[in-house]
Predict the structure.
Amino acid sequence: MKKKISILSSLLLLIVAIVMINPLLAQKPKSDSIKKVTDAKIIDVTTAAEVIDSLVQPKLKLKLHKENAVASYYADKFHNRKTASGAKFDNNKLTAAHKKFPFGTKLKITNPSNKKSVVVTVNDRGPFVKGREIDLSKKAFMMIASNKGSGIQKVTIEIIEE
């Protein structure tokens, strides 16, 4: 009996020591998101795919479409509405509206002022405001925006060729 108690207390002591040595084991994550450090800023990365995309920059075959294009983002009122392609619009996905590109076209949108870029898929038509070239989902726009308070941004649009 004393031997069992001695073994159990040794195991308990070992577990306590491990937890004290590595405080990460003692803490439960506050959310499912992963923290990623970029340029001394911490941002939330919500999916494994985004982590992989942010760490691995595949060699994309790009064709320049337009520089200094004006991009805007969808108003929240369009969330969950049907797009021209028939898909339900989701402001939290990486999608875009363009007047001419075929649905499913992948575009690399880059903000030249901060060099941030995002890859979006065209699934809607628009924008229908004079002087604007592309409408981005709110998530895509915020990922590249220099000024999060502004509704428009100058961007470079490149077509990703398969």
The first strand starts at residue 34 and ends at 38. Residues 9 and 103 are 64 Å apart (CA to CA). The chain has a mean pLDDT of 79.
